[in-house]
Amino acid sequence: MNMKQGDSVVVGSERPLGSAAPDPSAPDGSATTKSQGKAGRNLPAAIAVGAGLGISLILIMVFAPLVWIGVVALALAVATYEVSKRLREAGVLVPRIPLIVGGQAIIWSGWPWGTTGVLSATAGTVLVCMVWLLLHQGLGSAPKNYLRELAVTIMVACWLPLLASFAVLMVLDDNGAGRVLVFLIAVVCSDVGGYVAGVLFGKHPMAPAISPKKSWEGLAGSLLFCVIGCLLTVTLILEANSLIGVLLGVVLVVTGTLGDLIESQVKRDLRIKDMGTLLPGHGGIMDRLDSLLPSAFVAWLVFAILL
Questions:
Q1: Which of 61, 83, 103, 216 minimizes the number of CB atoms within 10 Å of its CB?
Q2: Top enzyme class of this protein (predicted)?
């Protein structure tokens, strides 16, 4: 649903993890076609895909809120595959099967057992991954890069399924469908506001070494759109104090922007433009979840404390 610029330059898959990414301003890596324009993407395709996803999620929230759990689980399975594939291409052999299966356990355990189930499944996934990496090459030889690959594996487990589980916990709370709608609308408002303000007025880069297209003007646009969107949706959908909407809008812009920058830095380390190619004009599933994942936890926390 968001319309963000990919930050990195695509190169071959044979590279060391953590090597410096090429300069995005270099002529051999940054030129965009006329069809992409300042967006850096195929804008008509991006809008069509984003609108289709948005309408589908609204219909789910209105008519079958629990289907949201399956949507989150499917999206996380694909995103985990994308991330693990990219890491393996960079020479980091994270255990793909335990991460995908464990991620499903983390997502689905929140339905019957709440936060206890989520945390238990996360701990179990980490333990299985520790043993899996230890035995990957057999007991006859010591595993190579065990500490590095275990650290990255735990990071992926916490970054993807653990954070996504809070989107599931959200829908299980009182008026859960309304909470998820407010959360999704807030993220969309932040993305649209940042995109519009960045394209029209962006002149001062916010983090040029990480995401050259992000500007302070874009951040201001995100803040304006998101606060207005949250104020209206919290008041009209959740029938709660409008000040909660203002607070939610501010914190979601901060967490969404940081989530986007985190994925941008990961892609720079891996020297790739997108995590995948599944969504035309957007990249992969993970490229659409970067701001949603940390925002899901923050939104759940704000709702749990203040509603």
A1: 216
A2: transferase
Supply the DSSP symbol for 38: G
Spatial distance between the Cα atoms of 64 and 68, rounded to a whole number of angstroms: 8
> Which residues lie across from 212 on neighbouring strands?
none
Q: What is the DSSP letter of 136?
A: T
Place of tokens 């040029």: 208
Q: Distance (Å, rounded) from C-alpha 68 to C-alpha 167? A: 9
CA pair distance 257, 198, nearest whole angstrom: 13
Q: What is the pTM of this model?
A: 0.83
Residue 206 main-chain phi, psi, to 5 deg: -90, -45
Q: How far apart are CA 63 and CA 192, in angstroms?
A: 26
**Average pLDDT of the residues in 205-211:** 92
Query: Can you tell me the distance from the alpha carbon of 161 to that of 117, in angstroms, rounded to the nearest whole number?
Result: 13
Length of the chain in residues, anyone? Answer: 307
pLDDT at 10: 35
Which pair of structure tokens corresponds to residue 224? Answer: 């304006």
> For residue 278, is pLDDT > 90?
no
Instruction: Please give the structure tokens belonging to residue 259.
Output: 């989530």
Q: Residues 128-150: what's their mean pLDDT?
A: 83
Return all residues near 201 (Cβ < 8 A) that are at least 6 apart. Answer: 215, 217, 221
CB neighbourhood size of 15 (10 A): 16
Statement: residue 66 has pLDDT above 60: yes
Find, among 221, 226, 223, 243, the residue nearest to 182 by Cα.
226
Q: Is 276 a residue whose pLDDT tops 70? A: yes
